[in-house]
């Protein structure tokens, strides 16, 4: 007879045991909880290490599709820089360049906090290398489409309105763009983007959904008098058992957006008395109508909610909803340098009246004085470096087509200059801009003077052995060693620009850093001019 109660206590819980046994159970539970807290980080770390080793092994075997999920789980269990580096490398090998680029940026920040300068520099270098090949997708929302309640989603994730119209890095492959709004038919489009490619997807104005507009708001069910009648409360526990009969205070009516009290519960009353809905907790929440299936009906004093308001008309879009390339002005400025080659074989170096030349006439030999009309100097080729600047001012006809004017020029070391400009057009192909420019302007170069020649009148050319000009009799040492020769030149250039960094934003600084080369050929009034400038500039668009 004595053993039976003891066995009952051993089989029961700590709460059913004696007070002394209950205190022992509480101590054991506390110790177990502390041990769990102490052991769990070690277990997670061991699991992370095992997953990291397994992921690296799979990467070495070329099984990146299997390796990346294991590295992701390892980093989730134990976020460390070494794991993040392996994960970024895995995503890079997998072709997810935008994901890897973002992880390299996070890795650089983490390494900077840790004081690991070597890892920080490595992460920056890897990220900069990937940035050149990032695909970028622009989600354009025109004014006509930017209505109230519009939600734009990329691969199922919502895109904030502040990011509309901005080029965002994205992994290569197939993506889905969708849009929805109250009272409008949903829209979606699939887009495929390649490595280094830029694309724009314009969200159209969503068509009105006639079926949604015609559907009336659901009305609340008619109250059931019997269920809504006040229920007398028992002195202590009420008519039903605890938790199943009368509801506790604050649990009578349904929460906002739900029906009346849940299934299996009766009507509630303050202090367990008659039914009375709590303030702000009526029968049904806004836009929800009657109680859901399996829930009790609302009381007689609860009114049906008002019908949902009609879909809002089109509103003004946000400031970033328009495409930022098309229809905007484009300005580029930069520094330039390169080589300048002049093959101008004739010109003037100043006053030639101190020189004279002779030629045959019917009466004998004529000694004629020189001037700029009949005499000119001859020059040798001039080759030298130059430094200066370049600029482009134009208009974006489209995101990939800019039309405007280009000018560039500079000082030639050793003497000389070049200032040319003219109409220009640029087209983009991925990360490369190709352009053509027509150029005109003055060119001057310091070149070696090889001699002076005088012109023979055409009527006596036959008396001078058919020559149209003759060398000027210059005293030895009287000619300058070199002189500045100038000419007006016409020609053009082919412009090739590589996008080093694309920096889109909603502000005026939106643009790209470009490295450009512009092979140029021009014909002067007396000779040719060749140039090979390279420039580093920023194009604002």
> What is the structural class?
alpha+beta
Main sheet record: 12 strands, antiparallel
Overall geometry: elongated
Number of helices: 8
SS elements, strand count: 21
Architecture overview:
The chain is of the alpha+beta class and 541 residues long. The strands form 4 sheets. Strands 8, 9, 12, 13, 14, 15, 16, 17, 18, 19, 20 and 21 form a 12-stranded antiparallel β-sheet that branches. The protein has helices at residues 3-11, 19-60, 64-77, 81-94, 97-114, 117-131, 210-214, 225-228; strands at residues 136-140, 151-154, 157-158, 167-169, 173-180, 187-193, 198-202, 329-343, 346-347, 356-361, 364-369, 375-379, 382-398, 401-412, 416-429, 432-455, 469-471, 482-503, 511-517, 520-524, 527-540. It has 8 helices and 21 strands.
Detail the topology: elements first, then pairings.
Blueprint: H1 3-11, H2 19-60, H3 64-77, H4 81-94, H5 97-114, H6 117-131, E1 136-140, E2 151-154, E3 157-158, E4 167-169, E5 173-180, E6 187-193, E7 198-202, H7 210-214, H8 225-228, E8 329-343, E9 346-347, E10 356-361, E11 364-369, E12 375-379, E13 382-398, E14 401-412, E15 416-429, E16 432-455, E17 469-471, E18 482-503, E19 511-517, E20 520-524, E21 527-540
Parallel strand pairs: 1-7
Antiparallel strand pairs: 1-4, 2-3, 2-5, 5-6, 8-13, 8-21, 9-12, 10-11, 12-16, 13-14, 14-15, 15-16, 16-17, 16-18, 18-19, 18-20, 19-21, 20-21
Helix pairs in contact: 2-3, 3-4, 4-5, 5-6
